[in-house]
């Protein structure tokens, strides 16, 4: 991942593509693998390039090779504008989710330790 790219969520893709988002599932099922030809992703992550293009990086469902699909959303001026806004936003949904997971893990640990709500007295060894 280069500095000109930022990982985004599916929700953000929908925001950028707007009406064109209806083609997104078609795009996911029409990926080119250098070994297998036309294939589809088994798993993928979404990145936004500073040019406004959306880059899908995933794994070929047939051979497991890494495949990349670039969606030239940057060519659409309205979409590029929305992409720019997302690209420049400080917090992404992914970041928020990671923070929540961290917070939850912290709370679970606190609960196991008897925090908060008064520390439990430890059994004497
Ligand atoms: Zn393949």
Structure commentary:
This protein has 125 residues and is of the alpha+beta class. The chain has a domain at 5-89. The protein has 4 helices and 6 strands. The protein has helices spanning 10-17, 24-28, 77-88, 93-112, and strands spanning 5-8, 31-33, 37-39, 41-49, 54-60, 66-71. The strands form 2 sheets. Strands 1-4-5-6 form a 4-stranded antiparallel sheet. Helix 1 packs antiparallel against helix 3. It starts with a strand and ends in a 13-residue tail after the last helix. The relative contact order is 0.16. The protein binds zinc ion (ZN).
Describe the structure concisely.
Helices cover 36% and strands 26% of the residues. It is an alpha+beta fold. Helix 1 (10-17) runs antiparallel to helix 3 (77-88).
Secondary structure: elements and pairs:
Blueprint (H helix, E strand, L loop, with lengths): L4 E4 L1 H8 L6 H5 L2 E3 L3 E3 L1 E9 L4 E7 L5 E6 L5 H12 L4 H20 L13
Antiparallel strand pairs: 1-4, 2-3, 4-5, 5-6
The chain binds zinc ion (ZN).
Zinc ion (ZN) binds next to loops.
- Output mean pLDDT: 81
User: Which stretches of 5+ consecutive residues score pLDDT under 50?
Assistant: 115-122
Main structural class: alpha+beta
Give the count of helical stretches. Answer: 4
Assembly category: single chain
List the helices and strands in order: EHHEEEEEHH
Number of strands: 6
Q: Beta fraction of the residues?
A: 25-35%
Biggest pleated-sheet summary? 4 strands, antiparallel
The outline comes out as globular
Strand order of the largest sheet: 1-4-5-6
Bound molecules: zinc ion
Rg (CA only) = 21 Å
Distance between the termini: 51 Å
Residues in helices, as a percent range: 25-40%
